[in-house]
Amino acid sequence: MPHPIMFDDDDPVLGRVRDIARAFPESTEVIAHGRPTFRCGRVFCHYGGSIRGGERREQSILFHPDPAEADALRADPRVFVPAYLGPAGWLGLDLSGGPDPSGDAPDWDEVGELIDASYRRIAPARLVRQLDQR
């Protein structure tokens, strides 16, 4: 039985995430488990996720951080450990302004940097070289 679609294709936050993620070499978008995923062979970014126990974060990205930055990221109130992927080192960033006390809009430069770091951890070396040559 296929998963139900758990996102709104007209979501402007998803639109910005798509613009960032699709700009990477050989990036493709695939719907998996009812949510958009961005891949370069393997998944480097998910849109939307949940915290273990079921609390959903509809407007969020799941990413594989640079290990040197993971502890600092975990201290950010917008960052969460996602269900299923968390034990493999993935983190989530809530883009809704919900957990962030300021309620500010996402910092798109920061989002781009997190997706870039995730891409570099997941992508084959030839694609990282291609990215660096841009």
UniProtKB/TrEMBL annotation:
Pfam families according to UniProt: YjbR
One GO MF term attached to the UniProt entry: DNA binding
Domain of life according to the entry: Bacteria
UniProtKB keywords: DNA-binding
InterPro entries attached to this UniProt entry: YjbR-like_sf, YjbR/MT2646/Rv2570-like
The protein's name: MmcQ/YjbR family DNA-binding protein
Species per Swiss-Prot/TrEMBL record: Williamsia herbipolensis
